[in-house]
Amino acid sequence: MSARDWVEKDYYRELGVAKDASADDIKKAYRKIARENHPDAKPGDAKAEARFKAAGEAYGVLSDTEKRQQYDEARTLFAGGRFGGFGGGRGAGAGAGAGAGGTGFSGGFDVGDLFGGRGGGAQGAGGLGDLLGGLFGGGVGGAGTTTGPTPGTAGTRPREQRGADVETDVRIDFAEAVGGTTLPLRLASPARCNTCGGNGAKPGTSPRTCLTCGGAGVVSRSQGAFAFSEPCRDCSGTGSIVDDPCPECGGDGVSTRSRTLTVRIPPGVDDGQRIRLAGQGQPGSRGGPAGDLFVVVHVNADDLFGRSERNADDLTLTVPVTFPELVDGTTITVPTMDGKVSLKVPAGSQSGRTLRVRGRGVHRKDGRTGDLLVTVELSVPQRLSSAAREALDAYVAATSDHDPRADLTRRAEAAARRETAS
Questions:
Q1: What is the sign, positive or negative, of the torsion defined by CA atoms of 257, 258, 264, 269?
Q2: To which H or E segment does residue 378 belong?
Q3: Which of 22, 153, 176, 337 has its CA 20 to 30 A from that of 251?
Q4: Partner residues linked to 298 by β-bridges
Q5: Residue range 196-232, pLDDT digits in tens
C-alpha cells in the first residue's frame, strides 16, 4: 500500500462505520458488504467486485490494531494534504529560534524533540520519524532541500509488511462437528499476482528505485524552523517505480482470483471456534509474508444429541421412559452417534436421572474420548383408556398412605420454627 493510500482513502467510510467503531462493529460491517458483493453472489458485476475488493482492503487495515493506529495518526498528520507532517532532524534556523528570536518561539523549545532525537534525523526511538517510517516503509530524511536519503544507506529501503488476516464462516452439521470432516472452501480474494510475483512489473523487467526519494517513499523540505515530510509524488510513497506494469495486475502486484482450499475440521469442534490456516490471508506488500485465514465454524443443532456444558467431549441424550420402567428397572436401547447400545435403568430411578455410557462421546485425535450422558425422563400419557384409568385409580387407593412431599413439608416446618426462635 502506498503512502498516498494511507492519506487519501477513508476506510471508515468504505465500511460505513464511525472512527471510534469497535473491532466487532468493523468485522460485522465488512462481513455484510462481503456477503452482498461477493463475486459468487453477483457474478460478472464489476461494481460489486470493486466494492468487494475495496471493503477487503479497508478491513485489512482497520482489523489490524497496529495498522489502524498508524492509519489514524497518518490521517491526522496529513489530513487533506494541507499539512505535510514533520520530517527528520532540526530544520535550518531551529537553533536561532531558541535564543535569538528568529522564529518567534521562547527559549527552551527544541524542534528536534518532536522527531525522537536531536540533530540526527528520524533515528530516535518513539519520534515522528518512526511513525513515518512505519507508514511509508523507510526512514525520514533530514531537513533541507526537497530530496530523499541516499540510495543504499541504512533505513532507506521500504520495509516488508505482513498481509492482513482474513476471516470467513462455514456451517456444518452436528455429526460433522463430533466426528470431524474435510470441507472445500472457495474464496474470491486479493492474492499476490502470479504473473509478476507481486512486484508489479511485467515479466522480464523489474521495478527501479525512485531517484527522487532514494527508495524511502517520502521526501523532506525545510521551512524556517520546521522540516516537513510528505509522500513522494513520483513513486506514490512506494519507494520504487514500475516503468512497464504487469498486464495482469496493472502494477499493483495484487490480483483478485478464486481459489479452493481444503479445510480440515477436527473432531469435537465447538460452535464459534476459529480454525487458523497460516499464510492464506491477504498477501503482504513489498515481499512481506501473507496474513492468516481464520475459519469460524458454526454448528447446526441436532434433533437428538447435544453437548455437555461441563465437558464438551461428552454428548447428551434425553430418553423417555414409563413409570413402571422407573419403578421396576429395565434395559432400554438408546441411539449413539455410531450405532445403538443397551442401557440398564436401575429400579427406583427418579425422572431426570442421568446415566453414563462410557466411550460413546467425542473421539479426539489425541486419544481423548468423551461419554454419552443419557437422561431418563418420565413420559406421561395424554389420555387413558378405561382399563388404564381403573388401574390408575386402584394404584392411587393402594398408595394413599404415601405422601411424596412429606420430607419437603417437614423441612419447611423446621425452617419456620428456626425463624421464629431467632
A1: positive
A2: strand 372-378
A3: 153
A4: 171
A5: 877 788 888 888 888 888 888 788 777 666 667 778 8
